[in-house]
Each structure stands twice: as structure tokens, then as C-alpha cells.
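Problem: given the chain below (70 residues), write out its structure.
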Amino acid sequence: MFEENCQALEVFLRVSTQWRVGDGVVRGLDYQALRWVIGMYAPDAERDVFERVQTMEAGALDVLNQKKGV
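Solution.
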């Protein structure tokens, strides 16, 4: 893993229980929780970490919803 992704991965793992689900489909992360965790663990790089977490979120959504047949 590239060093510049370490903070984002830590944040992503810390919000890994904060998925929004509707109609049996995983919609995305709860951004309120994400913002709070970024504020705690990456306050000096909020925008960068948020964008990196969004990239991880997009990949995770593909996998999570593939298992559900969506």
C-alpha cells in the first residue's frame, strides 16, 4: 500500500460499520459518521482523506451489492 493511503484506510476501517442500507441495497457510508471520524483521525487532511475514502467506498459498494445480486 502507498503511504499516502494509510490515513484514509484507517478512517475507512473505523467507519466500516456505518453503511446506509435501503431496500436491501447498500447505498453508501453514513457521511455524518465519516465526517466525525475524519475530524478525529485526519483533521489536517480532511478533504484528501474524504476523497480517498470515497474511492474505497465506490469499490466496496460494487462488491457488497454484487453479493446481493443487485
